[in-house]
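Write out the 3D structure for:
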Amino acid sequence: MASLASQAAPPAAGAVHPVVICDQPARVPAAAPGAADWYNERVADDDWQSQRARAVAHHGAELDRRRAAEAAEASGLVERFVADARAAGLPTAPLRARSYNGRSYRTPLRGWYLNSDRTIAVGDDGRYYSLLVPPSATGWLTGVTPQPQAPRLIVGEGARDGESLPLARLLQQRLEAG
């Protein structure tokens, strides 16, 4: 006995042709014009995804480049401030770090505080420090050593209104305050 698939006539364009699975015929749409569109869409999706991945990588690299340029410019301002502060005879003070809950910690640093909260400072080594640290029992006993950070041209950028200031203005205010 011949199978049902061999007995069927070839389907016309746009018609359905039988498919036999376990001697049970099933009807599947024949290849219509544009049947490969799903493949083309998938290839287009892959192209779009790779384009997006390249765009994201490019934007990330550009952001890193801008941040490095900003840090270099801000570091120049800090270095100039240290030279001006020394020339003006501004005394350095021992810098203390502050935890988020208000506790104060000793540090081995000396320098100048830049804000009234005493959370931002420039060390006498010419580096920029954020003096906010997490609370620590051992830090209270032994002190903490804040790590220098890359300065930003706008200190507190993205903070609430009135909390962001240009670094140049902060440095100038500190020089004027003596």
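The mean pLDDT is 80.
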